[in-house]
Specification:
There is one protein chain. The protein is an alpha/beta fold. It folds into two domains: about 110 residues, Urease, subunit C, domain 1 (Roll), CATH 2.30.40.10; about 290 residues, Metal-dependent hydrolases (TIM Barrel, Alpha-Beta Barrel). It contains 15 helices and 16 strands. The strands form two sheets. Strands 1, 2, 3, 4, 5, 14, 15 and 16 form an eight-stranded mixed sheet that branches. Strands 6-7-8-9-10-11-12-13 form an eight-stranded parallel sheet. Helix 7 links the parallel strand 9 and strand 10. It starts with a strand and ends with a strand. The model has no long low-confidence stretch (mean pLDDT about 95). The structure holds N-(iminomethyl)-L-glutamic acid (NIG) and fe (iii) ion. N-(iminomethyl)-L-glutamic acid (NIG) binds next to helix 3. Fe (iii) ion (FE) binds next to loops.
C-alpha cells in the first residue's frame, strides 16, 4: 500500500547518512525541503522530494497537507512510565519545604512507589502504562525506552519488566527495556547494602536475562543511592549477561557517574545537572551519549544542565523526558523542547536533533527511526498549519500536532 503526502510546507529532519550521532555545532543544522512530497509504502519511507519534481503515479492514497510540517516522531530514550501510582502528595511536601532528597531519606520517593507496586495487579499496571504510552504517542513519541526500578525485589522487578515486554508486543513503536533494580536500596537492606547488591547480581540479573526481559542495565549512581564502586560492580555483572549500560549520573551531586559510565562504555549517561569540565573532557573521549533531562530539573527546581557548554565542546547532546511519578510526571516532548530552548539556551534545531536522531542513537535505533530517511520506519508527525518548526518550542503549552503516523498508519 502506497500513500503520498503532497504540498508539505516543510519536510523537516531529513538525514541521508547514518551517522553515529549528531555532534556539536552540527546539531544546529536540520536538512529540510520546503514544498515537499513524501511517499510511504506500508510501514516504510520509500522516497521524498520537492513538489517541483512531483512523481505522478497511481498511489493508493494521496493526502494534501498544504501548510503543514512533516517531521520524524520523537525518540524518548529515558522514561520510567511503568509505575503504580502518581505521587502528588510529595509534590505538595516539596512546595511546603521538604527537598527531594529529604523525602527519599524519609522512605518516600522511589521507596514510596516500590511499596505500592506489590498492591497493584499486573493487569492494572499494564492498563495504566498503556494509557500513559498512548498519551505520549498522541504527543508525537514514536520510540521509547522504559525502565523498571520501582520493584526492588526479584518478583516486583520481573512484574514491571514483564509489563514492558507486553507493551513491546502490543504497540507498533520500538520500545527498549532497561533493568533498573539498582534504583534505591529497599528499606529492609538499609543496614546491609551488600546483601541487596548480591541479590541483584546473583538473583535478579540471571532471572532478567533468562527471560530476555531487558536490553540495558541502569544504575542510579548518586550520593545516598549507589556509589561509584557499587555501580562499577553492578555494571561488570550486567556485562556477563550482555546487557549494555545506561546510568543515572550527576543529577544531584557531581557523583563520578559520568566517569564510571564512560569506563564501562555506557550507551548513555543521563541527567547531568552537575557536570564540569572534567566530565565534558571525559565524554569527548568516548562513544557515550550525554542525555539531558531538563524536565526533571524543572519539576524539582534544581539547576539546569550546561547544554551550551557541552554543545560548544562538540558533544552529541541528547534530550529525553525522564517521565516518572517523582521528579517528572510528564513525557510531553513539545514542552521539553520549550524548556531546552528557554532554559538550556538550545536553538529549536539543536533541541529537535537532540530528541530525534540522538534519541534514536541513545536507544541503538538510529537505523530505524529518528529522521526522514529512505527505508526507515514511517513514524512521523504532521503538525497543524505552521510557517516553521520554531513555532513548536515557541508555543509552549499549545498542542500544534495534528496527526501522528506510526508504521505508516495514523495513530
Ligand atoms: O530519573 N533519579 C532517579 N530516578 C528518577 C526518579 C525516580 C522517582 O523519584 O520516582 C529520575 O529522576
Ligand atoms: Fe530517570
Amino acid at each position: 500500500m502506497q500513500t503520498i503526502f503532497t504540498h508539505i510546507q516543510s519536510l523537516f529532519g531529513i538525514q541521508n547518512e547514518l551517522l553515529p550521532s549528531i555532534k556539536g555545532h552540527d546539531l544546529n543544522k536540520v536538512e529540510h525541503i520546503d514544498q515537499a512530497w513524501l511517499l510511504i509504502e506500508d510501514d516504510r519511507i520509500l522516497d521524498f522530494g520537492s513538489m517541483e519534481h512531483y512523481p505522478s503515479g497511481n498511489y493508493d492514497k494521496d493526502i494534501n497537507v498544504s501548510g503543514q510540517l512533516v517531521f520524524p516522531t520523537w525518540c524518548d530514550s529515558h522514561t520510567h512510565l511503568v509505575f503504580p501510582k502518581t505521587r502528588e502528595e510529595e509534590f505538595v511536601d516539596r512546595i511546603n519545604g521538604l527537598s527531594y532528597e529529604q523525602i527519599a531519606a524519609n522512605g518516600g520517593g522511589i521507596l514510596n512507589s516500590a511499596r505500592h507496586i506489590t498492591n497493584i495487579s499486573s493487569e492494572a499496571l499494564y492498563d495504566a502504562s498503556c494509557q500513559r504510552l498512548e498519551e505520549l504517542i498522541r504527543l508525537g513519541t514514536g520510540a521509547i525506552e522504559i525502565k523498571s526500578g520501582y520493584g526492588l525485589s526479584l518478583e516486583a522487578e520481573l512484574k514491571i519488566l514483564r509489563v514492558i515486554k507486553k507493551l513491546k508486543e502490543n504497540y507498533a513503536i520500538p520500545i527498549k527495556s532497561t533493568f533498573l533494580g539498582a534504583h534505591a536500596y529497599p528499606i529492609e537492606y538499609k543496614e546491609n547494602h551488600e546483601a541487596y547488591i548480591q541479590l541483584i547480581i546473583k538473583e535478579m540479573l540471571p532471572a532478567v536475562a533468562a527471560e530476555g526481559l531487558a536490553d540495558y542495565m541502569d544504575v542510579f549512581c548518586e550520593k545516598g543511592f549507589f556509589s561509584v564502586a557499587d555501580t562499577d560492580r553492578l555494571l561488570d555483572a550486567a556485562s556477563k549477561y550482555n546487557l549494555k549500560h545506561k546510568i543515572h549520573a550527576n543529577q544531584l551531586h557531581n557523583s563520578g557517574g559520568v566517569q564510571i559510565g564512560v569506563k564501562h562504555k555506557a550507551i548513555s549517561v543521563d541527567h547531568l545537572e552537575c557536570v564540569g569540565d572534567e566530565e565534558i573532557t571525559c565524554l569527548l573521549n568516548s562513544t557515550t551519549i550525554p542525555t539531558l533531562l531538563p524536565a526533571a530539573a524543572f519539576f524539582l527546581g534544581i539547576s539546569y544542565q550546561p547544554a551550551r557548554k557541552m554543545i560548544d565542546a562538540n558533544l552529541p547532546v541528547c534530550l529525553a523526558s525522564d517521565y516518572n511519578p517523582g521528579s517528572c510526571p510528564s513525557g510531553n516532548i513539545p514542552f521539553l523542547l520549550s524548556l531546552a530552548c528557554t532554559q538550556l539556551k538550545m536553538t529549536p534545531n539543536e533541541a529537535f536533533n537532540a530528541v530525534t536522531y540522538n534519541g534514536a542513537a541513545a536507544m541503538e535505533l538510529k537505523h530505524e527511526v529518528g529522521s526522514i530517511s529512505k527505508g526507515k520506519k514511517a513514524n512521523f508527525i504532521i503538525s497543524k498549519a505552521l510557517p516553521s518548526f520554531n513555532l513548536i518550542p515557541y508555543s509552549f503549552g499549545s498542542n500544534l500536532i495534528d496527526k501522528v503516523y506510526i508504521d505508516g498508519k495514523q495513530f
